[in-house]
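Sample A.
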Amino acid sequence: MHTYDHADLQRYLQEHVVDFGALDSVDKFSDGQSNPTYLITSGTSKYVLRAKPPGKLLKSAHAVDREFRVMQALADTDVPVPKMLHLSGDESPMGTQFLVMGYLDGRIFWDPALPDLAEPERAAIYDAMNATLAALHSVDPASVGLEDYGKPGNYFERQVSRWTQQYKAAETRALHDADYVMDWLTANMPEDDRASAIVHGDYRIDNMIYAKDSAQILALLDWELSTLGHPLADLAYQCMHWRLPNAAEFKGLAGIDRTALGIPTEAEYLAKYCERRGTTVPDNWNFYLVFSYFRFLAIVQGVLKRALDGNASNPKNNDTIAGFVALLARDARKLTS
């Protein structure tokens, strides 16, 4: 949890955010595991402040500066993002780097099964999500000043290496399934096809704000893992959620009658995305799914490590998180056979 002086933060925001008045309140959003996020009120105006967590952090993690840069760059594209207002330095009144962005009043869906919506609404929500992903991957990075936002070529090779290092740095117990998956990914690396796009890195339904009365996406949030990379990484990561259990802590769509609910199947979602982008699903689709599972388990393992270190934004039950990491490793290994 951040500690700050109210008067110092008010002076800072008045100096750096246009037309900022008195700082009335700073309230932390209860949800979210990565970068602590706060609702800031000033008179009738509302803002969102998103900060790196305090304490020792893994290398390249919690990159609010990257979040600020990519959302600012996408402001005039078909990808919906909040308005970026300010990016601080590491020395700030919050003790860590933070960004300030405009507040958007809409809906966030925490359960991908969308239990509170009617069947036609569910279909529209998923179609909007599909269209936004296709729109993101269709943006020319150079046209928005992001040509240097990531390294060219060998995306999956570099990513497997990176997340292996991140996983090992956060490892709290040995998992044979995780070790097997790491080796399998290296042995089954696809040939680099040079496909490149702006990838979000954590593309899922609860990282979006929808309009209150329609399926319109007002904003795509949580860009700290974004980079230039292979578009199949985003697509497979989202499709992985069709296979995850609809459990209390980490909700997916496995075991749910998606047809009855009006939610597209994984195959239907893939086909619609490929239609929008003019591409086809690769024959080695399982590689991208296994990669997504491993990357996700490395992220969740990092959450567990921070929780054990007393440094998580929103600590959950540690045993539950550890169990979920083991489940991801087990299911990833099943996809290799």
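Sample B, a different protein:
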Amino acid sequence: MSTRKPLVHALLSAAAAVGFALSASPTFAAEKIVFWNNWDGSRTAQLRSILNEFEKQNPQYVVENVTLSSDTTAQRMLTAVASGDVPDLYMTQANDFPKWAGLGAFRPLDDLVARDGLKLDEIFYAGGIEGSRFDGKLIQFPFKVPTSLMIWYNKELFQKAGLDPDNPPKTWKELEEAAAKTTVRKGDVISQLGVNICLNCSTGSGSENAFIEWLSRNGGEVLTPDAKGVAFDSPQGLDTLKWMLGFSQRTAGGWPNAVRQFGSTFKDLRPSFYAGKMAMIMDGPFLYNIMAKDAPQMLDKVGVFVAPINSDNPQATERYLAYGTPGYAIPKGAKNQEGAWKLLQFIGGGSGACTFFTVQKRVDSPLRNCKVDVPEAFAAAFKANGDLVQSRQAPSAFQQVHVRLQQMQEAVLLGNQTPEDALKAAATDVKAILARTN
């Protein structure tokens, strides 16, 4: 008797049983991690490639990357915190980190660090991790070290003006001399600007604060050591404002004149610098990777130096007072805190963080063991710029302090207030801000 039919039936029955078993098994669904950040432009695709690697290594998770504009991030996060519908991981900015930390918007990370046995002092530079604490608690992982603005300069324009391109300015007087020699203007018309020493000085134009940059180089302090009192209403503070005003008047016919023709933000000034219409630009070490992408032809033509000091003040030293550190934090109420912690370790303190910096050619990584090669011509200045940063305790209302200082310097540079009146008014207002929030 043939056994073919029984065998076929047996095989079909077995296949059907396997199919039923597979269909009855639960479908694997990856957990979503919602990540809000400001990595826009070309960096969005770069970040996505890093997140794809995270998902590859951690298939139980899928990352929803939400790119926000720096102009709208704070308001959107405020709405999210109020409603309780927060992302799982959030990118802070230096000036708003103390605000969110003061509001208790983020989950402290100390217990997770202890649970997983992380040795933070072996992962991060001290400045970055200390700047990520608030009231003694670790609130975030830094995504970069606090950095001071530097001064990039066009060597050809220096040489043309009779300046030594291998010996850039080291003092306020030398900087003004270089700016005067490299500024070409007829009356109020400027065809070539030496430098705008007040980048992002218009109220609300950015997180940079030129007054703090220059006050730091004049031996002054912004706040008292406990961050509860005002210290910028000092002789150093007044001298700094007067110098900023006089410098702009003597070299460019006034700050408003320079701003009308060149603008005052990164977005405004970089194209003019690339085109050889500005001899110097205040910018961060991060301009290196931006220039490598947007104007690579400039890399062999430029030099960079740390912002100079006021040599008339014997107490002035090369330093920058940093308030707050940008980073990544897990909001309280995040739906996927464990997934966010896993992603934070990868993108904030692990291989993903270093790869992201390497891809961008950034030189301000907070990671001790992440090295990004830069030309030897820039390396020494970058190191010096990193070494001069001094972290200071930031009050929860530091963003309000920052804006008030922007208003102060803008009022002086526009001629709406004298340096004396502007300094006094700003000090009164900042004292009130600190009294309300401390």
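Observation for Sample B: The longest strand covers residues 31-37.
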